UniProtKB/TrEMBL annotation:
It comes from the Bacteria. It comes from Chitinophaga niabensis. Residues 1-19 form the signal peptide. Residues 46-108 form the IPT/TIG domain. Keywords: Signal. NCBIfam families: delta_60_rpt (TIGR02608). This is Delta-60 repeat domain-containing protein. Pfam families: DUF5122, TIG.
Length: 534
C-alpha cells in the first residue's frame, strides 16, 4: 500500500506551489532503504591501550568488523597495520613500522571510517618539559648557541615565554638552556629593531652579536639599515657623531647598511662581513651635510648600487675589492634571481643557492661557489641544476652538500625535491630519497651522526604519510624509527607550519627547532620545540 503526502511551500508572500511525493508506507522514502555504515567505532574507549609504540598490540572496539574482515585494512595515520585478530566487536592489530601519531582509520574498499586519535612514541620525541607552549607569539627564524649554555633567537615576535614585559620582547631574545627567557638581556619599550631579524652571528672577540634582517632603526637610533651590532646584554652598539652645529647624534657603530632584506651574514677570518639578501643599494648616512634647503645638520644617504651580495669592512664601510666596478663606482652584476641560502666555507669561499640561473652573466644551475674576491669559482659545477628553486642547502662535515626545494629534477634526473652533491657540485649517486615530497621542501637540518631532518609543505614523503616533517637516513631513506611523531602544523592551517632552523644542542642527544609552527606531534609548541632522540 502506498500513501500520498502533499506538501505546500510558500514562495515569497503571495506565490504558493503544491507538490506531492510518493513514499513507502514504512516511511523509508522512494530511493529504498537508507545506507548504514558497514562498521562503527565505539564512542568511548575505542582503542586500548590509548597510546603505544611500534610493535605494540592494540585493540579497536566497535561493531560490524567480522562481516567485512576479508576487505578490512586498519591504518595508523595512513600506514597499514598488521591485523592479528577480528571479531564482530574488536580488531586486534600491531602498531606498524613507519606508523605515526594521528587518526586510526579503517578502510573497506574505497570507503574510509575514521576512528580515535592514537599517539605513537618512539626514540625521536618532543621534550614535553621544555616550555615551547610559552614560546614566541610570531615566527622565530634563527637560533644560535652563545656562551654560558644560552641561546639567541631572532624573528618577528614581540613576546616570548609569556614574559609580560612592558614594551615587549622585540625580535631578539636570549634564552636559557631550559627554554625560559634570560631576563638579564635588554627588553621592553624602545628596544630592538623596527622590523624583523633573521641572520645572527656571535662575535666572540667583541662579545657582541651581528644581526641582519629588514629594519631602518634599532632601539632609539635611527638610520640603521638592515644590519647592526648588538652589545652582549642587549642594545645596539653605537657611536656619537658630532654634527656641523656641534650637536651630538647617536649613530650605529656600523657606518652603513642596505636598503632591503638580509637573509645571510658571514664573518670571514679577517673580520670582513659578507651580507647576502634581497637588496639593490648599500647606504651610508652622511651626517656632515649642510644644505640651503634643509639647513644645518641635514642628513643625506649616500647610496651605492650593489645587488644581493656585498662585503663590508669590520666598521661597516663597503669593501670595493669584492666584485666591484671601480670605474662606474657600483657593484658588478651578480645573480638574476633570489638567493635563499648561503654558507661560508672554511677557505672563505661562499656557497649560494636560490632561484637564479646566471651569476655575473655566466650560466649556473641555481647553486654556485664564489671565490674570495666574489668571482665565480669555475671548479664548482652543478650543470643545469634543478628545474626549480633551491630553498635551502647544508654542508655536511664531509663536504658534501644537501640541497632541497621545489624542484622535481636535478640535471635531468628525477628527484623528490632533495639531492646530495659532491663538493665539486656533481650529483652524489649514493643518496636517493625516492619520490620525496608530494609538495615542496623548505628547510634541512643535520642530526649528529648523519641523519637528516627535512621540513616543508607536504603530506607524504616517499609515499609515507608525514605532516611537513620527516627524518631521513644518511642515504635518503625514511628513517624507520625516528618518524613516529605526527609532524608539525600551524593551528588552523597546516601549510603555515614551517621549521626555519634546526640546531643540535652540544653534548646532548637533543635538537632545538624554531620556525612558524604552533604544534609538534599534535602538541602545543609555539615556534620553538626541543626534541630528544636516542
Amino acid at each position: 500500500m502506498k500513501t500520498v503526502i502533499y506538501a505546500c511551500l510558500l514562495l515569497g508572500i503571495t506565490l504558493a506551489a503544491c507538490t506531492k511525493e510518493t513514499v513507502n508506507s514504512d516511511g523509508k522514502g522512494p530511493y529504498g532503504d537508507p545506507v548504514l555504515p558497514a562498521i562503527n567505532f565505539a564512542e568511548e574507549q575505542a582503542i586500548s591501550p590509548a597510546r603505544g609504540k611500534v610493535g605494540d598490540e592494540v585493540v579497536l572496539k566497535g561493531k560490524g568488523f567480522l562481516a567485512v574482515k576479508d576487505n578490512l585494512k586498519v591504518l595508523f595515520n595512513g600506514t597499514a597495520a598488521p591485523i592479528v585478530k577480528v571479531t564482530d566487536t574488536t580488531i586486534t592489530v600491531t602498531v606498524p613500522e613507519l606508523g605515526s601519531s594521528g587518526s586510526v582509520s579503517a578502510q573497506i574498499g574505497q570507503e574510509f571510517y575514521f576512528g580515535p586519535y592514537f599517539p605513537i612514541f618512539g626514540p625521536f620525541q618532543m621534550d614535553t618539559i621544555f616550555p615551547g607552549v610559552r614560546g614566541g607569539n610570531a615566527g622565530i627564524y634563527n637560533v644560535i648557541p652563545v656562551p654560558n649554555n644560552k641561546y639567541m633567537i631572532t624573528g618577528e615576535f614581540n613576546e616570548y615565554d609569556n614574559s609580560a614585559i612592558a614594551g615587549g620582547v622585540n625580535r631578539l631574545a636570549r634564552i636559557n638552556a631550559d627554554g625560559t627567557l634570560d631576563r638579564t638581556f635588554a627588553y621592553g619599550t624602545n628596544t630592538g629593531p623596527s622590523g624583523t631579524l633573521n641572520p645572527i652571528v656571535y662575535l666572540s672577540e667583541e662579545l657582541q652579536y651581528l644581526v641582519g634582517g629588514y629594519f631602518s632603526g634599532y632601539d632609539q637610533v635611527s638610520h640603521v639599515y638592515s644590519i647592526a651590532k648588538v652589545n652582549a646584554n642587549g642594545g645596539v652598539s653605537q657611536r656619537s657623531v658630532i654634527r656641523p652645529s656641534g650637536a651630538v647624534t647617536p649613530a650605529s657603530e656600523l657606518e652603513g647598511g642596505f636598503r632591503g632584506t638580509l637573509n645571510g651574514l658571514h664573518v670571514q677570518r679577517d673580520k670582513k662581513i659578507l651580507a647576502i639578501g634581497n637588496y639593490r643599494y648599500y647606504v651610508k648616512p652622511n651626517y656632515n651635510l649642510t644644505t640651503v634647503e634643509l639647513g644645518l645638520d641635514s642628513l643625506h644617504l649616500d647610496s651605492t648600487m650593489v645587488q644581493n651580495i656585498a662585503r663590508l669592512h669590520a666598521d661597516g664601510t663597503l669593501d670595493s675589492s669584492y666584485h666591484y666596478d671601480l670605474v662606474n663606482h657600483q657593484g658588478k652584476v651578480t645573480v638574476n634571481g633570489g638567493i635563499t641560502s648561503s654558507y661560508l666555507l672554511a677557505d672563505d669561499k661562499l656557497l649560494i643557492a636560490g632561484n637564479f640561473t646566471t651569476y655575473a652573466g655566466q650560466s649556473v644551475g641555481r647553486i654556485a661557489r664564489l671565490n674570495t674576491d666574489g668571482t665565480l669559482d669555475a671548479s664548482f659545477n652543478a650543470g643545469a641544476g634543478p628545474d626549480q628553486a633551491i630553498n635551502d642547502f647544508l654542508v655536511q662535515p664531509d663536504g658534501k652538500i644537501l640541497c632541497a626545494g621545489n624542484f622535481k629534477k636535478f640535471n635531468g634526473v628525477t628527484t623528490g625535491g632533495i639531492v646530495r652533491l659532491n663538493a665539486d657540485g656533481s650529483l652524489d649517486p649514493t643518496f636517493n630519497a625516492g619520490d620525496g615530497a608530494d609538495g615542496y621542501v623548505n628547510r634541512l637540518g643535520l642530526i649528529p651522526g648523519g641523519n637528516i631532518i627535512v621540513s616543508g609543505s607536504f603530506r607524504k614523503f616517499a609515499g609515507i604519510t608525514r605532516s611537513n616533517f620527516v627524518v631521513l637516513t644518511p642515504t635518503g631513506a625514511v628513517h624507520k624509527t625516528y618518524n613516529t611523531n605526527g609532524g608539525i602544523t600551524f593551528s588552523g592551517n597546516a601549510g603555515l607550519g614551517q621549521v626555519m632552523k634546526v640546531l643540535p644542542m652540544t653534548g646532548q642527544n637533543a635538537l632545538l627547532m624554531v620556525g612558524t609552527f604552533s604544534q609538534f606531534d599534535y602538541r602545543q609548541a609555539n615556534r620553538i620545540v626541543r626534541v630528544v632522540y636516542q
